[in-house]
Amino acid sequence: MSDQARIDKWLWAVRIYKTRSIAAEACKKGHISIGDRTAKPAHNIRVGDIINVKKAPITYSFRVLKCAENRVGAKLVPELMENITSQEQYEILEMSKISGFIGRQRGTGRPTKKERRDLDTFVEETYYDNIEEFDFDEL
Questions:
Q1: pLDDT value at residue 118
Q2: pTM of the predicted structure, to 2 decimals
Q3: Is CATH 3.10.290.10 the classification given to domain 4-129?
Q4: Distance CA 125, CA 102 (A)
Q5: Residue 98 and residue 101: Cα distance in Å, rounded?
Q6: Would you kindly state where each structural domain of the chain is located, as residue ranges?
Q7: Would you say 5 and 68 are in contact if contact means Cβ atoms under 8 Å apart?
Q8: DSSP character for 17?
Q9: How many CB atoms are closer than 10 A to CB 80?
């Protein structure tokens, strides 16, 4: 392993992104920064650099322990990087997961299983329960 590596290759090697092209695209879009400066895909990183990765809704922070341009096994990832993401960021992530179920707008997408059951119950009670009591002669 060398003393420096391209940022897009390193992000792919330590399994932050599934493919190198996705890592390069994230760099181009400004989601990757080293310190407080955004990084281009060909930017070289060194041991000790702090890399910030913006994945909505939080920003992950990693410290480079070793530079690698070839993908490594999942068990070897802790030797290459250290996750230094703050606890506040993980709390934001948990809150967004919880609020995602509560804040769902009605009428968007498919209904949930509970909503579908409620709808079926409403339709059955409205049309079928009172059909014997309905007087067709009044029409």
A1: 80
A2: 0.68
A3: yes
A4: 27
A5: 6
A6: 4-129
A7: yes
A8: S
A9: 20
Q: Does the CA dihedral 115-99-85-20 come out positive or negative?
A: positive
Query: CB of 32 within 8 A of CB of 50?
Result: no
**Which residues, 6 or more positions from 44, have their beta carbon under 8 angstroms from its beta carbon?**
4, 5, 6, 7
Match 């299983």 to its residue by tokens.
113
CA distances from 42 to 8, 38, 45, 54, 125 (A): 7, 12, 9, 18, 64
Residues 6+ apart with CB under 8 A from 46: 3, 4, 64, 67
pLDDT single digits (tens) 49-80: 999 999 888 899 999 999 998 999 999 999 99
Residue 60 sits at φ, ψ, to 5 deg, of -85, 150
With tokens 């809704």, the residue in question is 57
Q: How far apart are CA 127 and CA 54, in angstroms?
A: 52
